[in-house]
Amino acid sequence: MGQLEEMLSVVGDECGDEVDWAAVERAYGVHFPPDYKKFVAKFGGGTIEGSIGILVPIETADPMIRRVYRLLDSVREDPDLQRWSGVEGATPSLGDVLIWGDTDSADFIGWLTIGENSETWPLVVYSRVKASWSLYECGMSEFLAGILSGEFSECLISDESLMGAGRSRFLHDREEERLLEMGVYPWEEE
Question: What does pTM read for this prediction?
Answer without folding.
Answer: 0.93
